[in-house]
Amino acid sequence: MKLKREIPALVAAVLLMTIAYAAQAKDDRGFEIAARSDRTDLGFGDSEVELKMVLRNAAGQEATRALRIATLEKPDESVGDKSLVVFDTPRDIKGTALLSHAKILDPDDQWLYLPALKRVKRISSSNKSGPFVGSEFAFEDFTAIELNKFSYTYVGEVPCGDLTCDVLERTPRYENSGYTKQISWVDQADYQIRKVEFYDRRGDLLKVLELKDYRNYDGIWRAHTLSMSNVQTNKQTDLLYGDYTFDNGLAENDFVKGRLSRLR
Amino acid sequence: MRAFLLVILLAVLSPAHGGEVDVSGSVELQARAFWHDPQWVGQDDQALQGSVVAITEFRWRNEEGDQRASLIPYLRWDATDDERSLTDLREAYWAFEGDDYEVLVGANTVFWGVTESLHLVDIINQTDFAGDIDGEDKLGQPMVSLMLQRDWGEISAFVMPYFRERTFAGVDGRFRPPVPVDTDNALYESSRDESHVDFALRYSHYIGDVDIGLHAFSGTSREPRFVPAADGQSLLPVYDQIDQFGVDVQYTREAWLWKLEAIARDGVTHSFAAAVGGFEYTMYQVSDSSADVGMLLEYQYDGRNEFEPVTIADNDVFVGARLALNDIQNTAILAGFSYDVDTGETFINIEAERRFGDNWFGELRVRAFSGAKPGDTTYWLQKDDYVQLNIARYF
């Protein structure tokens, strides 16, 4: 019978639609949780912070760098923030600065300032997965924190410390990422990211990032200790942040390339 | 000197204006070893030659953040060649910054350009050729500059009331012509000599993946030509008046940087054009390591005649490779090879560097010349192949 033969196909189609619908719902929920987390940050305007970067190799040897980061918020979620990273130590690179105009899916615009020659050099931002100044943080870990740079899937909820966390799988939508996926833990009380696992191009666990010491600045949350552990090499990098200041009156003109040679 | 006094004055006044003076710097020991005997009469025949460079940076900014001052004395003492010893102020300025403009008075160093093998458009500062033959060491340029930042780009205007002469090796030193350059008796086309007021205008912006710079310059050429002294025992540098327009462009796409610098100059006897262009392509994290390997290819063209200042970059191909380990010590190696298509002259340049601990920095350079026949522009450097080790302590 003709109809009989069509029934399995019909069942399969309905089944597929159900799965697709369920997956869609899971994706929506994942995105909503990520968006809710991202939007707790909305309206911070601009921020400045000093931090120490502590690099530790497998043998436990340490090296420290001191840097400053200024950020200008672009409230529109289809446009990325602008940021300026300036190094104070090691002393041979003192004054070296990285200016980034983050994009969502297009490559970021980045300029590097080399103080020895007083040279401003536009650099390729396709080096997403390369190590940032020899640390366990990749360039994309610094710049790829825009909501729409990822697609999200809801995984479930688990206890995390004293809190309960929603677990999301997020997949980079931009090109040249070194990651096939990331798993992030977002708490249900303050909607902040507590932990991220990074999976390399082979799909193996590469790094674990823990975000600790959250403080609330009039409604804006900031983690003050970020520990990135490479589980494949046993190297670790800690970022130890000082106090943030917000609404410093920073403007677009503080994030133009010509500004780089006038920083000090 | 007026700029220097201004900064001293500011340093004295700064406690009244608030803000702090930030002091940093470095001391570097340089050892150069030459493996050929010198080519010219009078050159010191010691194979090993040493020098010390001390740089101190004093920087001040007021509490409001709209004024800053900088004072950077640069001292170099060379054990072999007095003419290579140098006292300079790389920076000695005061600047006032508004929201979208800046006024700067004093000596400053400014870099323009995009290419690696040659810095064709970088005309503001004089080259400290005695310091390094690669042309990247510069002397502080006295100036008054005004910068305007607009949505459509940045405009800078420079008025330069005093000219800095190029440094050259003395009679004892390497890297010199058969007779030394007499820097005490420079000649000028302008009757005002080094006090001729030079002007420059610069526009710089970016549109998407393209960074662009335009410039105009009118004044004393930073490149001298040479005439023999009356006694024939030295060469006198001659600094002519020139007008120059130039453009520098970089197109950044994925791992490719495409670069071009070009100038048109109304020179000593004629107008000519020169250009350098090419690409830099980087392979990131080669073989699953954290190292990057970059490859560079640039072509240099220069249309000047024999009456203009001599250039070696007239019809030359440069190929280079850059290895950056991206480790904690910032280990990097750059190897370059230049070939003159007309004459067959070649130049090899290898530079390796890394940090040691937190405050030490080491650099190794190897440079070698070959292929020049008598009359070629690099013939006088043929015996000056050398290896240089620099050890610097930063504070």
Descriptive key words:
A: 264 residues; alpha+beta; outer membrane lipoprotein receptor (LolB), chain A; 14-stranded antiparallel β-sheet; 14 strands; B: 395 residues; mainly beta
CATH topology category name of chain B: Porin
The number of domains of chain B:
1
Number of DSSP E strands of chain B:
21
CATH superfamily of chain A: Lipoprotein localisation LolA/LolB/LppX
C-alpha Rg of chain A, in Å? 21 Å
CATH class of chain A: Mainly Beta
The helix fraction of chain A, in percent, is 10-25%
Structure explained in plain terms:
The complex is a heterodimer of chains A (264) and B (395). Chain A is an alpha+beta fold and 264 residues long. Chain A has a single domain (39-262), classed as Clam (outer membrane lipoprotein receptor (LolB), chain A). Chain A has two helices and 14 strands, in the order αββββββαββββββββ. In chain A, strands 1, 2, 3, 4, 5, 6, 7, 8, 9, 10, 11, 12, 13 and 14 form a 14-stranded antiparallel beta sheet that branches. Chain A is globular, with a radius of gyration of 21 Å. The mean pLDDT of chain A is 89. Helices cover 4% and strands 53% of the residues of chain B. Chain B contains one helix and 21 strands. In chain B, the strands form two sheets. Chain B has an 18-stranded antiparallel beta barrel. In chain B, strands 8-12-11 form a three-stranded mixed beta sheet, with no helix packed on it. The two termini of chain B are 27 Å apart. The A-B interface holds A 55, 57, 63-64, 89-94, 107, 109, 117-124, 126-127, 129-131, 133-134, 176, 178, 251, 253, 256-258, 261-262, 264 and B 22, 24, 26, 59, 61, 68, 70, 95, 97, 99-100, 102, 109-111, 113-114, 136, 147, 149, 154, 204, 206, 211, 250, 252, 254-257, 282, 284-285, 290, 292, 326-330, 355, 358-359, 361, 392, 394-395.
